[in-house]
Amino acid sequence: MSLISLNPPPSPPRSLYLKHKPLHPISTLPKPKLPQKPPSTNPIIPPTLVSVYSLSKTVPKIGKFSTFIENLDPITLKNEGLAVGVLVLARLVAVYWQQAFLWDAALNAVYRVRAAVFEKVLERDLEFFEGYGGVSSGDIAYRITAEASDIADTLFALLNTTVPSALQLLAMAAQMLAISPLLSLISAVVIPCMALIIIRLGGKLRKISNKAHLSIAALSAYLNEVLPAILFVKANNAELCEFARFRKLVHDDLSTHLEKKKMKALIPQIVQIIYFGVLFMLCAGSLVFSSSSFVSGGMASFVTALIFLIEPIQGVGKAYNELKQGEPAIERLFELTRFKPMDIFFS
Hints:
The chain is mostly helical. Helix content is 77%, strand content 0%.
């Protein structure tokens, strides 16, 4: 009979050492490479100067152009028409160049804002998401995506107004003063009325836009809440209840956005009414006050300068309305970086 020797199992170790993987806080994780400073708006200055210079040369040539048409001088008409065409083409190229740089600056700024806000969101504790007064994940996603895109439009409108519109406004005002100081004075009296109306309507647009942002954010938060819990909804036969709640949120969003679109459509029409009123007043004033000394070529140049003067004013009004429309989005986005959870005390 063979003997089988059984070796005893090895004794357990006296101590067990577990190597924990170190936890890396957000501050120690490698960060993506961000631009050290926001993109400069200096590249827009050359195309802006080209655009304004082209306009300042186009206005007097249009007056001469109308005079040559009356005199039926084909050779001079051809030369002046070619010069006007070159100036218009130069302005179109300069405007495209200018807007390309502006969109680059606006979108890069929004990229930096999104990165900074999301970094702050990642550093928050759980109370930020689940505590009393916390922010839902759907609302956070909407703020960082859709509302940040609205900020890009607002920044573009503001950047497009600061330097280009200011230079064009000064150049066209100088042209109008050189042609007819009297009619320029009439324009200076009427144009502030347009600015006051734009400011008044812009305040109303801001209130309506704030309601629209809150309604679409509530809808986004609801969908983010109910879709992951669709099995729970079906298990409790709550489809009709959730559908009624969804229809109410959608109807609220429809009402607020429709009111916002109507206001945005109304503001340009009011500006156009004032614009054509100024044109009519200037035409009548030219006949009454300057009938003996104001030639048709000068009138054509003055009206052309007025048209290009109204354009930057409309741009300023549009930028102001975009700012009032985008202010709620800017405030809601940066609220994510200033969140303070509320404490609850039980007696």
